Amino acid sequence: MPIDNVFEIKNLSTSFFTRDGEVQAVRDVSFSLRRGETLGIVGESGSGKSVTFLSALGLLAASGKVKGGQALFNGRDLLASSAKELRKVRGKDIAMVFQDPMSSLNPLKTIGKQVAEALEVHTGLGRAEIRRRAIRMLEAVRIPEAAKRYDSFPHEFSGGMRQRVVIAMALICGPSLVIADEPTTALDVTIQDQILRLLRELKRESDSSIVFISHDLAVIASMCERVVVMYGGMIMEEALIGELFESPAHPYTMGLLRSIPVIDQDKGALLEPIPGSPPDMLAPPPGCPFVARCVHARAVCAVSPPPYREVSKTRRSRCWLWADDAPVEGNVFKERSAAYARA
Amino acid sequence: MLELRDIVKRFPVKGPGRRVVHAVEGVSFSIPPGETLGLVGESGCGKSTVARTAMRIYEPTSGSILLDGEDITGMRERELKTRRKKIQMIFQDPYASLNARMKVRDIIAEPLVAHGAFGSQAETTEAVASILERVGLGRQHMNRYPHEFSGGQRQRIGIARALILGPKVMICDEPISALDVSIQAQVVNLLKSIQRENGISYLFIAHDLAMVRYVSHTVGVMYLGRIVERCRSEEIYGRPLHPYTKGLLASAPSPRPPEPGAERAPSIEGDIPSPIAPPPGCAFHTRCRYAEAACREAIPVLRQVESGHEVACHLF
After folding, report:
1. ipTM confidence
2. Number of domains chain B is built from
3. A225–B contact, CB cutoff 8 A
4. In a domain, B207, yes or no
5. How far from B99 is each of A247, A250, B52, B126, B187, CA to CA, in Å?
6. DSSP for residue B94
7. Less Cβ around it within 10 Å: N or C end of chain A?
8. Which of B40, B43, B148, B181 should we substitute to test contact with A (largest number of A Cβ atoms within 10 Å)?
9. For the domain that residue B6 is a member of, what is the CATH number?
10. pTM of this prediction?
């Protein structure tokens, strides 16, 4: 593995075993994250975007089981690590920020104590030094009068301020990887904007890598350099953020972009929704998970899953239309396929 | 078709003191037939309280509600019941708003039964089948239960239930917020095509600015219980006047990646104040970069500053 990959998921598959049967939440997912990079993972509910990371960090619910694959953090496979080893990594080298700040905070402990906790667990620093660092961290996430607010409880904070505290908790040990799972979804748009700006500023000041998970392409676009698009437990495509919007390389992404209004949208032009609904992960189609909703689907798409192949130096796509023997007629990717091949 | 006149709604707060939540503080609007008024704003701005008051789920503290030209504010439940056929509502959470133990046929037929509008069993079944087809489902779905449907399909069932009495006004309270992105456009396009066909009026409440612009003819921006700006929807996004509207638009991440090195428009600092103790004067002055002394003292009234463009701001 090249040394500049801080995190790499290889052929990960995870299922949940429920009363109704096996829910195949993640299927053959692979991607990597370079040092200092911000990678977006975009997908709808049930696409497998959160489960991918919960699997890697050993945080799956009891019914969840990793069926195969690797999750390499600085070259070490987290899936082969013991629970004790994982506890040492989580919160120190890998930190997480979740959607709902209230569920990440203990309502009975002061926010200062909660920010300081990771330092107490993972370092041998003295109490005064820990307090000093926690206050500095609260200042870094722009909590006004941080020293005074150190002894406040979560309920005394607004939703936006709570999420700042959760970010401070995540960053206090200087993690090399931060996983932010829908960190602004529960917030109002002006507060979301404040948190996104804060995250961008903090990013500039550190060399941590960030994984930013969201259902909102606009939020991903404002944060990330590269993006992975998930659907039905699989990666549909991977691209630089500009490329994704400019020339999506998967019919699902194309449909997604056409179904979102832009603020200066021509109002006469109707949105083009993607027909149908996401697949039932208890019985996902044997082929491409998007087949039932895809206007370009062919016979092969329903039968076998498309290979996840490199279509250019920066992009990968999981679609039969990129196959070498794909038909030329009506193939939206054929021209680009030839152009990429020449490049 | 639907008109609200100076609606005020305050909720008492439990506990010591006589504190109240100033949810809505004097909201007026009217929606003509076949048009959509979009209300946008952040949590606590009162947009959902406006919706529920218009339905008379909440009784307004003061002000009046006119439906089809008739004042329904003080109407007793018995009289009101006959008017409810004209105004129906769909909700945010399609999982919570359908009775899990009822079959789809009975969920959709329930308003007919409640209003004594149903005929024979066969007629009812036909009415349900036809409305199901209208919302993009089918007759074969009638005998299934809500859990057998996806979120988008459940919202279609909710729309079918609201449509079965042939209402003239539909209140849509965040009808797409709980749906996946790829499903939102399906539901919004369905609402638009129903409006084109039968000239229904919508009060459309959402926090997604781009979606509100897409569905609405007129947009009202609310902040802490008041409408602070209102105009045709192209105007509000093309030429916003109120500092709050400008900040709100700047805060919404653009669904296109920013140009490298592009300057981001200034957005809004600070938190939304509590509606229990709203700031004096203009409620937005605590977060407004243009606030002057007058803004801290007098509440600005919503007035027309250009043709069809109303703003409540001392700067205008």
Report:
1. 0.85
2. 1
3. no
4. yes
5. 44, 38, 20, 21, 20
6. T
7. C
8. B181
9. 3.40.50.300
10. 0.90
